[in-house]
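Page 37, continued from 36.
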């Protein structure tokens, strides 16, 4: 009898722990995963791009006063999810460009594929993201007083693979990352840290690199369910290396690009992708499912200054951070 009671208590504790990890507030016992689901929603997106190179200069007055002008905007989001056997696929599209009068905005395509319960004790998730951004920027030289503005278009490309060993919530992975955008760069003397004459300016830089990632995620499991009432979360963080290179355009000739590239070295980098929210989903007896999800998203990447390259006693100073954040709400329909 004691063994039966202990076994019952242990099973109860494990069930409670599982529900706590999943985030479910009200347990739904009926569950028959739908093959297809469709989401449509809105994300009020704020985008901050900051150049932090000036913090590394000996004399802050040598820095260009750079401002990125990117309006907050409402982004439309649609997503299609398909479950078939061990496979789960998703296709997400986000677009805010039509909601901005001055042309600022973002369009993003996110494609995911997960292999669930096929390999014992291991789930595998793969993801590809391609995003394009547009905005404007201004820069003022505090020494000469010269002031200029320009529009810019940039892009991000991400490849992710995450492995979930022995569980469905805690994973480890690898991210390949590329990002290009205009920013201020400075060439300084190693001997005294002062700015080289004419050694400041704006350049388009392309960052290529990788991250080792850690993920805590119940969203992919909630997406596969039709009856759910509880919290959702998807938190991924990564540490890695990015290597910048200068791009040639109408403002930077081949000689300038070659000079800057000779000073650029690898940079330490961090990123955070966070989604927190609440989801209610219900499937009726006809097989039709419906629900609503609301929450908050926050994404950030930051790159430290590039490592010193031994080049005639001079170094280049450049680093940045980028943020996307805002509340979102979506409706989901499934069958």
């Amino acid at each position: 009898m004691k063994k039966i009671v202990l076994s019952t208590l242990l099973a109860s504790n494990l069930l409670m722990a599982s529900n706590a990890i999943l985030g479910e507030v009200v347990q739904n016992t009926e569950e028959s995963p739908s093959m297809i689901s469709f989401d449509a929603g809105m994300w009020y997106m704020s985008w901050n791009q900051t150049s932090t190179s000036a913090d590394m200069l000996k004399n802050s007055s040598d820095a260009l006063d750079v401002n990125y002008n990117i309006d907050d905007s409402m982004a439309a989001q649609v997503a299609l999810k398909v479950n078939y056997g061990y496979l789960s696929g998703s296709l997400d599209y986000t677009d805010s460009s039509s909601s901005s009068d001055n042309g600022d905005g973002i369009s993003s395509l996110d494609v995911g594929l997960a292999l669930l319960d096929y390999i014992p004790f291991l789930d595998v998730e793969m993801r590809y993201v391609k995003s394009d951004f547009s905005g404007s920027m201004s820069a003022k030289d505090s020494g000469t007083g010269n002031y200029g503005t320009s529009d810019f278009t940039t892009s991000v490309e991400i490849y992710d693979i995450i492995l979930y060993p022995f569980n469905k919530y805690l994973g480890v992975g690898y991210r390949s990352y590329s990002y290009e955008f205009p920013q201020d760069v400075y060439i300084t003397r190693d001997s005294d840290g002062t700015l080289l004459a004419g050694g400041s300016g704006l350049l388009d830089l392309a960052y290529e690199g990788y991250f080792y990632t850690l993920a805590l995620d119940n969203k992919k499991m909630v997406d596969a369910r039709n009856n759910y009432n509880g919290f959702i979360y998807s938190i991924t963080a990564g540490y890695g290396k990015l290597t910048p290179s200068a791009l040639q355009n109408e403002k930077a000739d081949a000689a300038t690009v070659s000079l800057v590239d000779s000073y650029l070295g690898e940079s330490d980098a961090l990123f955070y992708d966070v989604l927190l929210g609440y989801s209610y989903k219900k499937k009726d007896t006809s097989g039709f499912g419906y629900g609503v999800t609301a929450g908050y998203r926050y994404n950030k990447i930051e790159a430290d200054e590039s490592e010193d390259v031994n080049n005639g006693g001079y170094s280049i100073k450049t680093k940045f951070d980028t943020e996307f954040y805002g509340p979102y709400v979506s409706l989901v329909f499934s069958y």
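Residues 2-22 form the longest helix (21 residues). Flag for discussion at group meeting. The chain is about 10% helix and 65% strand.
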